[in-house]
Write a structure and sequence with these properties.
Chain lengths: 63, 182
């Protein structure tokens, strides 16, 4: 089925609207973890320099 | 990667205990986590808690003393401007302006995993975004407008009371494309 970007956005928004706040917080945890993992790999492999945002995420999210 | 599994409802339980023990007189969740109650989640690494103190501090420099004492008594580590509570970096911000104070007072009592939590209402969050006016505030406000979560009469009243109407009139051109027309 062909869908325009606008239709896709609307569908995404309506799916998100039906999510509970608990589910949205779980999505946030997944985003945080993904950010840390991807940034860590990129930094370790010299693909990017550790940004201020990455340093902040490490400080706030790690044990 | 040493990533602690965070527990937001445990943090909300701590806030309830702080209220019950008179450490703070009132509080409300603000910032990106408050926004998640109304719109889809956006990346954030911390939790902003806006509070009103229960007792006058011993000096102006020690306004957060009661909170840091409570944290130390309960084994929560303070790191720079944050207190680590159950895997969350929590920043306690004293409600300084009249808008902040009103936002805390008018907070909605919502449920999260069975725990009641005070969360700033979307119109107050929007007014604070307009007041602060950083790039990330405009982006979040665009999400609020796109998701149609703002009660416009209430927002306009808040902006009027706190002298932000003129700023909003100047900046609202940014959101012409975010208005829902579906």
């Amino acid at each position: 089925m062909k869908e325009t970007i606008k239709e896709m956005k609307l569908q995404f928004r309506s799916r998100q609207k039906n999510l509970s706040v608990e589910e949205k917080i779980r999505q946030l945890y997944a985003m945080q973890k993904r950010y840390l993992l991807l940034s860590e790999v990129a930094v370790k492999n010299n693909l990017k320099k550790p940004s201020a945002e990455y340093e902040r995420a490490c400080r706030l999210l790690k044990k | 990667m040493n990533f602690e599994t965070p527990d937001l409802s445990a943090v909300f339980r701590v806030l309830r205990e702080m209220l019950e023990q008179g450490v703070i007189a009132d509080y409300a969740v603000g910032g990106a986590v408050a926004a998640i109650f109304y719109i889809e989640p956006r990346e954030t690494f911390d939790l902003d808690i806006f509070f009103v103190l229960a007792k006058k501090p011993s000096s102006e420099l020690l306004r957060l003393e009661a909170i840091y004492d409570y944290a130390a008594r309960n084994g929560f580590k303070a790191e720079a401007e944050y207190i680590k509570i159950y895997g969350w970096a929590v920043q306690f911000l004293e409600s300084a302006s009249s808008l902040w104070k009103e936002a805390v007072k008018a907070a909605a009592k919502l449920k999260f995993e069975g725990e009641t939590v005070r969360v700033m209402r979307p119109e107050h969050l929007a007014a604070l975004m307009i007041e602060t006016g950083r790039k990330k505030d405009w982006l979040r406000l665009a999400d609020f407008i796109e998701n149609d979560v703002l009660e416009r009469t209430r927002l306009n009243k808040i902006l009027q009371i706190h002298g932000l109407k003129e700023k909003w009139d100047k900046e609202s051109w940014r959101f012409a494309e975010n208005e829902r027309n579906d």
